[in-house]
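Hey all, quick one. A colleague (J.T.) asked me to put the potassium ion job into the tracker so the inputs and the structure tokens live in one place instead of scattered across chat threads. No bug as far as I know, just bookkeeping. Sequence used:
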Amino acid sequence: MRNAYRVEVVRHAERELMARLPEGALMRRAAAGLAAAAADLLGRVYGTRVALLVGSGDNGGDALYAGARLARRGAGVTAVLLSPDRVHPGGLAALRRAGGRAVGAEEAASGRAVLGGADLVLDGITGIGGRGGLRENAARLLRGVTAPVLAVDLPSGVNADTGEVDGEAVRAAATVTFGAWKPGLLVEPARSHAGAVRLVDIGLAPYLPATPDVVALQHADVAALLPRPGTDTDKYRRGVVGVAAGSARYPGAAVLAVSGALRGGAGAVRYAGTAAAEVLARHPEALVTDGSPEHTGRVQAWAVGSGLGDGAGAERAVREVLDADVPVLIDADGLRLADVDAVRARRAPTVLTPHAGEAAALLDTSRAAVEAGMLDAVRRLADRYRATVLLKGSATLVAGPDGGPVRANPTGTGWLATAGSGDVLSGLIGALLAAGLDARDAAAAGAHLHGVAGRTAPAPPAASDVAAALPAAWREVCAARPRRA
Ligand SMILES: NC(=O)C1=CN([C@@H]2O[C@H](COP(=O)(O)OP(=O)(O)OC[C@H]3O[C@@H](n4cnc5c(N)ncnc54)[C@H](OP(=O)(O)O)[C@@H]3O)[C@@H](O)[C@H]2O)[C@@H](O)CC1
Ligand SMILES: Nc1ncnc2c1ncn2[C@@H]1O[C@H](COP(=O)(O)OP(=O)(O)O)[C@@H](O)[C@H]1O
Ligand SMILES: [K+]
């Protein structure tokens, strides 16, 4: 599990820890980890050229101390001071003692020697003290950078708490973050600015609260959630999932949702809708009816909405499913048709799975606004519908109805952005609900497996290939289960 904490919480933990340590100890730990990561990126340190972009706070201090370490190992290190009159004095002195030099931003911008000639650039402009996008003097300097950038704590210019990027921000090849993950390292669009992230332990863990703000499940966490049929099970005990999807216009959505459901670990899949013949032709194991959900037989969960269209049958299907006292997943057309009050009134869990466009329609805002503020959007929707909401994106987010940590999926891949892959996801999560996972777990585990399947399916995958790759994804994830002693 990767636990991310907002700035206020990190600062509080840092103060507690700092009170027990000698002056400067934390920054030394941070700088040692940072210098080690820089050395790894450089391959060898001696004879390389390293530029430091140094802002006015402690983030710049980290960069300066790390630069001093690299200079002692034979790198030519130049610090570019964005605010020469407000620079970490100890860091600057350490760099100079180690043989490094410092120049002002004007000097660095006037020739290509400093930034253009560097093998690696350390971004120490702002860390958790940054506000808004980069200021113009920093943004201008960055345009002269051609070397890979290693971000210190966070890529400067991104919002650590929300993952929002308001203006220009550093695009790093890698980020070294100190003490704890920050939400912006897990949530888009900031996540894409961070590159590969390495967490440096500075001893903060005992001072962090038990409940983080954002978490990213890892394979072992998901493996622990996935159902494992015992010897005494049968198909009904494993759970039966109902799928109400597809329409005369979009029969393929029904086929894809059922294919996801069949590989989601439930004991059986019942399909209700107009695409019964198409579903049966592709999936002889599905139990189909062309009636409405009410006449489908017992299920332990429903997945409704993919490709359902907006005819009278669609509206009825959504209504009937919402009336059932079992967990329900609502996707695509179902989202438009589901009444907010009906969802809020449900006693069994509900999972909504909008993409950014659908979320925008539900929130009466623009798609761009949702994409810019994913964390806020998913929390608002969960609150409005009193439901679990999975907001699709390159780092899909899952929020529960009663607050608590938001889950950010780390396994996504752009290959999943293919028509019908969301239908596969809806069936998959429906099956996990039927198998008895709690709503947040089913949604997060489903997104995790779906992402792994998107990566392992032969590229470029179609949505059917993503479904076909789910068993391999399931095996890969479960291989991370800790072995029993
Ligand atoms: N605390 C600890 O124990 C440890 C902390 N550590 C390190 O300290 C970092 C936090 O340091 P911090 O608090 O000094 O803030 P920091 O991120 O350097 O930025 C503040 C400065 O940036 C400026 N600025 C703001 N926005 C800006 C913008 N958009 N564009 C440009 N400039 C902008 C702002 O200037 P002003 O607004 O005053 O002009 C202000 O002076 C943390 O991320 C980690 O790296 C580690 O050493 C481990 C131990
Ligand atoms: N850039 C991206 N990177 C990773 N995953 C993505 C990206 N874009 C979309 N996805 C994923 O692809 C799936 C698309 O679902 P959706 O938009 O509902 O498509 P459809 O309705 O065609 O099935 C979602 O799981 C989403 O998270
Ligand atoms: K930074």
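Adding what we noticed when we looked at it: The mean pLDDT is 96. The CA atoms of residues 151 and 175 lie 4 Å apart.
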